[in-house]
Amino acid sequence: MKKTKIALIATLVVCFVLVIVVGIMRYTSLDKQILSVINETHTVRIELSRHSDSARISIEDKETINKIFEDFKGTKLKKVSGTPTIGDYVIHIYYKNNTMGTYLGFSVDQEGKYISLSTQSISNSYKVLSGDGFLDTINSLEWEQTDK
After folding, report:
1. Which CATH number covers residue 126?
2. CB 88 within 8 A of CB 50
3. pLDDT at position 57, please?
4. What pTM was estimated for this model as a whole?
5. Does residue 11 sit within a domain?
6. 39: helix, strand or coil
7. What would the pLDDT profile of 40-57 be if each residue is shown by its tens digit?
């Protein structure tokens, strides 16, 4: 009887800890998801497209890239299993260190409430919880209009 109670309590504690850990893992930030994989030794290029008006821009200027990355800081995210239609903004961040290159891509809905983030092997969707200024620099850029 005593062993059964101890086993039951231990099982409940383990389940409680697992629920907490899984809940914590659902929360992250935009800078953690993007900036944690890019460092100063990488060569970075950002390509942006905006579907609402078929505009595009490619950025290699380090100062502008740093401003965009600065806007990302403090944007809190919560992982979600599904999102509404995403993709007014599509942002590809290409980075290269010596000979190996890779990319991060993410799309943002028109209101800036949901983000879909992808690497070469993983894709996750997030709800933006705070930090509504993460598109400020991107919106202030001079976009090139393309044919629809």
Report:
1. 3.30.1490
2. yes
3. 92
4. 0.74
5. no
6. coil
7. 777 888 898 888 888 899
Residue 15 lies in a domain: no
Outline where 26-61 has alpha helix (H): 30-34
User: What is the average per-residue pLDDT within 53-76?
Assistant: 88
Beta carbons of 81 and 125 less than 8 angstroms apart:
yes
**Is 9 strand, coil or helix?**
helix
The answer to whether 49 touches 100, Cβ cutoff 8 Å, is no
Q: Flag whether 13 is in a domain.
A: no
Quote the tokens at residue 40. Answer: 């100063």
The answer to whether residue 53 is domain-embedded is yes
Number of domains into which the chain is organized: 1
Range of the domain at 50: 28-145
**Whole-angstrom Cα distance, residue 132 to residue 148?**
29
52 Cβ contact partners less than 8 Å away, ≥ 6 residues apart: 88, 110
**Confidence class for position 16, pLDDT limits 50, 70, 90:** low
Report the SS3 class of residue 81. Answer: coil
Asked if 134 contacts 112 with a C-beta cutoff of 8 angstroms, the reply is: yes
Per-residue pLDDT of 70-96, as tens digits, reads 888 888 888 888 666 667 788 888 887
